[in-house]
Amino acid sequence: MASTSQAGYTQPGIPRGTRDFGPTQMAQRTYVLEVIRKYFTRFGFQQLETPAMENLAVLTGKYGEEGDRLIYKILNSGNFLDGVNYAELAINPPALAAQICDRALRYDLTVPFARYIAMNAGKLTFPFRRYQMQPVWRADRPQKGRYREFWQCDADIIGTESLICEGELVSLLWQAFSELGLSGIEIRVNSRKLLSAMAERLEGGADGQNRLQDFTQAIDKLDKIGREGVEKELRERGFSDSTITGMGPLFESQEKKATGYDALPGILRWLSGTAGVLSENGKLAEKELLEVAHYAQTLGVPSNALVFVPTLARGLSYYTGCIFEVVTLETEMGSISGGGRYDNLTGIFGLEGMSGVGVSFGIDRICDVLETLNRYPATLKATSTTILLHALDGDGLNVAVNQLAMLRHNHIAAEIYPEPGKPKRALSYADKLGIGFVGLFGSEEIAKESLSIKDMVAGTQELVPFADVAAFIKEKVRL
Amino acid sequence: MASTSQAGYTQPGIPRGTRDFGPTQMAQRTYVLEVIRKYFTRFGFQQLETPAMENLAVLTGKYGEEGDRLIYKILNSGNFLDGVNYAELAINPPALAAQICDRALRYDLTVPFARYIAMNAGKLTFPFRRYQMQPVWRADRPQKGRYREFWQCDADIIGTESLICEGELVSLLWQAFSELGLSGIEIRVNSRKLLSAMAERLEGGADGQNRLQDFTQAIDKLDKIGREGVEKELRERGFSDSTITGMGPLFESQEKKATGYDALPGILRWLSGTAGVLSENGKLAEKELLEVAHYAQTLGVPSNALVFVPTLARGLSYYTGCIFEVVTLETEMGSISGGGRYDNLTGIFGLEGMSGVGVSFGIDRICDVLETLNRYPATLKATSTTILLHALDGDGLNVAVNQLAMLRHNHIAAEIYPEPGKPKRALSYADKLGIGFVGLFGSEEIAKESLSIKDMVAGTQELVPFADVAAFIKEKVRL
Questions:
Q1: Which residues have C-beta within 8 Å of that of residue A468, sequence separation ≥ 6?
Q2: Which of A177, A441, A454, B451 has the fewest Cβ atoms nearer than 10 Å?
Q3: A72-to-A362, B4, B315 alpha-carbon distances in Å
Q4: A:B CB pairs within 8 Å
Q5: Least confidently predicted of A23-37, B85-99, B189-203, B294-308
Q6: How far is A280 from A292, CA to CA, in rounded Å?
Q7: What distances in angstroms separate CA B155 from CA B94, B311, B339, B356, one per listed residue?
Q8: Which of B217, B222, B159, B169 is nearest to B337 (CA)?
Q9: H-type helices in A180-236, by residue range?
C-alpha cells in the first residue's frame, strides 16, 4: 500500500492485481479489442455500456457464495455509520458491509446485461444482439492469467431460441481467434441437457437439480484432479459405487482425446443403456449439438475446431443449453473464452421467458497468450507519429511549426521536438519511439525553402522542398 | 436502491448519477471519442491506461478537503474490521474509512498520470506525450452536466517547458471541437503568473501563497456570483477597501466582453501601476500569453477563438503557468474542457522538476451539448448491419446461412433473422433498427439461385443472383 513517507511525499504504487498499461501495451490491447470489435459489428451486434458501479443488491447472490465474497464493495459517502449498530455487527463483517455499502463494482458483464434488459425490455427490439467491452473487478487472489481488474468482451443474442445463434457465436469465436493468429484453438462444446441426461442415470446423491449440481461440479474438475479425484469426489457426494463404475464410457471418451464430434455416438449409446432408449433430455441434447455443428460448419468453421467434450460443465448455474469453452493448445492458459445458452437469466430481475446465448472473450488472457507466443503484429508501435520535426536553431522554430500545421492538415501524424538545438537529442527521441522520419530545419534549409528529411530506417537523408513534403511522406508510407 | 422484492426477484435499478448507454448513445459517444482520439494520435500522443482502483493514499490530499470527501472508497475484502478500533472510531467516520479502505476509485486522470510518471520515469522517453480516455468517479451531487461516473480524455506533454506545447494544445482543442461541429467555442486563457502579479499588488489578506489562493478562489466565482459577490468575498477574506476599489480595471475588462487579446494591454497597464513598471511575474505572464497566442495562430487557430480572460483562475492548485478553459457560447453548460501548465505535479510522488502541460475533454458535457444542439451526424446508427437476411420457410434457412457467411466474408456487416416465416416480423425488425436492406429467401428465390433484396429506404425490391449479391450491396452503400 502507498503511504506518505517521512520525506513528505506519497510513495507511488498501484493495488496488487492491477496494472498500468503504457503505450506499447495499449497498442497491443487496442489491436486485440479492435479485431474482436470488427467481428462483433460485422455480425450485427450493438454496443452497450453499463456503469462500473451497480447497486449491491443487483450483484449479491448472483455468483454463488464464493462470488459474493469476491465482489468489491464501495463505502457509502458521508456518515456511513449513521444508523448502523456497528458494535453488534462487528462480529459479522459481511452483514456490516451490506449496511455501509449500497454499491459495488461490476463483477462480470452478464448480470448487468440481464439487469439492463429487465429495465429496458419495452424499448428494445428483439432478438437483441448486444456486445459489451468493459473492465470487471474481482477480489480474487492474483496469479498467472488472473487479475483483480480485467476486461471482458461479451456478445449475446437474447430473445430467440434459434440454434442458428449458437452456430453464429462459434463462427464468431473462430473468425476472431483466427485473425488474432490463434487458429490453434479448440472450441469445446457440450450441452447442459446432456449433463442432465447423465445425472438422470445416476444412482445416489441428492435428487433432481441438486444431483445435477453435485454431478457437474464434480466432473467440472476432471482437468484439475483427474479421473480418480472425480470418482472420489462423487463418492463423497453420495453417488453409489455402481454409478461411478458405470461412468467408465464418460471418462474413457475423454482419455481418448477424441477430435470433433467423435465422442458423441459412444456417449449417446452409453446414455441409451441396455434398453437402447435415450431420455427426453438426451434427445434434445443430441439435436442441439448436431444443429450447432451444422450451422457452424455452414458458416465456415472447420469441423475439427469444434470439439464435443462430454465432461465440459462450466461453473455458472444459469446455463440451460449448449455451453462453450475455448482453449489454446499452444500454451498453458486455461480457457480464453466461454459462454452458453441461458433460458431465464433475466428472471432474477422479474422478466421471465427471455432465452439467450452469449460468449465472452477474456482479453487479458488472450493478450498474455499472444505475448507468450510472440504473435503480436510486428507493426504495432507505441506512437502513431510518422515524422518528427526539429529546428536546429530558434529561427527554424517558426518555420517548423508552420510545416507541422501543414503536415497535420494533410492527415499525417506529426510532432515537433519542442526545444531547438543540435539534432542529437531529437534523433535519439525518434529512434527510441520508432518514429520513421525526422525533418530538420536549419538556416540552409530555410534559405532553400526545403526540409532535410532523414529516413530513420534506411539511414538516408534528402532535401525536400516544403511544397512537396506531404506528398513525399505519403508516398514513403503509402498513406 | 435495488432490493430483493417479496416476489423473490431483485428489483433492477442503477445507482443515482450513473447511466446505462444503449446502442444509440454508444454510437454517439464512440463518435465523440474517436474524433478526439484521431487528433490525439495525429498530434503524436501515446495512449496510457491506469487502473480504476488506486491506493487510497495516492489520492488523499491531492484534491483539497472537498475532493477528499468526494473520493469513492472501496471496502477491504474479508474481515475488514480486524485490528480496527471501531468503537473509538465510530465518532470519526473519515478516520475509520481510511482504516477499512486501502483502495479508492480514480477521481481524475491527472494524479494517476503523475503517479505513473514517478513510477516509470527511468523507462520513458521525454518529452512524453500521453493521452488517456477513461471514466472517473466522484461522489458529487448529481445535476445537469454533472454525473458520478463520467469520462475524461486527457492529453499532456510532460518533460519540457516549451510554450510550443501550450500552442499545440490550443490547436488540438480547436481542431477537435471544430470537427465536432462546435466551432462556436471560446478557448479562454490566462496565466497563473498574471494572477500572482495581481495578488502582489493587493493589500490585506494573508501573505504570499495564501493571498494568491484567497484571491484566485474569490475571483474564480465571478461568473457565478458577479462583481458585487466577489467584492464581498474579498472583503470577508481580509482584503482592504482600497485594494478592492483598485480592482476596477479587472472587473471592467470582463464587463466589456473583450474578444481575443483585447483586454491584455489594459490589464498590463493596471498592473504596471503609476510607476509604469511590471513585476517579474507580470513580465513572465505577458511573454507566456503572447507566445502561446503566436504558436496557436501559426497552427491555424483563428485569433478570435482564443480569448484572454484575466479573471480565469481554475480551482486546482497545481497549475503554475498558462491555464485554459473551453466554453461553448451556443448553450449553457459550464466548461467543456480545461487544463494548464504545472511545474511540479510529480513532486508529490517524489519526482521533482518535471514541468508539463495538459488539457482534458469533458466527454459527458460535450455529448450533452451535441444532443442539445442536435448536432450529431445524421448517419450515426445503433447497428452497423447493412443487410438482414430472412428465410421465408425452413428450406430457405440453410441457403440463407450460406449467404450470410458469404456476405461477412466480403466484409459486409450482415445478420439473419433467426426464425423463418412470413417476412412481417423481419421487416419490422429491420425498420426499427434502421437496417437498409432485407434479403428474402423463399422457394422461388432458391429455385432461381437468387435473393430478393428489398431497399428499406427506397421501398424497391430486386431479384439478385447469389453470385452478384456482395457486389450489389457494395455498390449500393459504396463500400
A1: none
A2: A454
A3: 20, 20, 32
A4: 318
A5: B85-99
A6: 18
A7: 33, 24, 9, 11
A8: B169
A9: 192-201, 208-219, 222-236
Burial class of A78 by CB neighbour count within 10 A (0 to 12, 13 to 18, 19+): exposed
Write the ipTM: 0.94
Q: What is the pLDDT of residues B379-418, one digit of tens each?
A: 999 999 999 999 999 889 999 999 999 999 999 999 999 9
CA B439-B444-B450 angle, 5° bins:
50
- What number of residues does chain A have? 479
What pTM does this model have? 0.95
| CA separation for the pair B379, B477 (Å, rounded) | 12
Option in B3, B125, B414 nearest A429 (CB): B125
Least confident of A45-54, A226-235, A398-407: A226-235
SS3 B361: strand
Phi–psi pair at B454, nearest 5 degrees: -100, 125
- pLDDT value at residue B7: 59
Beta strand ranges found along A75-126 (DSSP E): 103-105
> Contact at 8 Å (CB) between B155 and B129?
yes
Which candidate, B284, B111, B257, B269, places its Cα nearest to that of B188?
B257
> Which residue type sits at B442?
G
- The pLDDT tens digits of the residues spanning B455-466 come to 999 999 999 999
- Residues of A with CB below 8 A from B300's CB? 405, 409
Question: In the prediction, which pLDDT does B3 show?
Answer: 47
Contacts of B121-124 with C-beta under 8 Å, sequence gap 24+, read B121/B346, B121/B351, B121/B354
pLDDT of residue B96: 82
Cβ–Cβ gap A57/B102 under 8 Å: no
- How far is the C-alpha of B126 from the C-alpha of B311, rounded, in Å? 33
B70 CB neighbours in chain A (<8 A) are 77
Tell whether A243 is within 8 A of chain B (Cβ). no
Sheet strand arrangement including B185-191: B46-47, B128-137, B149-158, B356-362, B335-342, B319-328, B185-191, B306-308
Pick from B3, B21, B418: which is nearest to A127 by CB?
A: B418
The pLDDT score that the predictor gives to residue B125 is: 96
Identify the residue among B28, B71, B77, B417 best suited for mutation to test binding to A, counting A beta carbons within 10 A and taking the highest: B77
Contacts of A92 (CB under 8 A, 6+ apart): none
Cα–Cα distances in Å, from A60 out to A68, A69, B288?
A: 6, 9, 55
Query: Which cell numbers hold the place of B423?
Result: 417476412
DSSP H or E run through B26: helix B23-42
Tell me how far apart the 2 most distant CA atoms of chain B are, in Å. Answer: 97
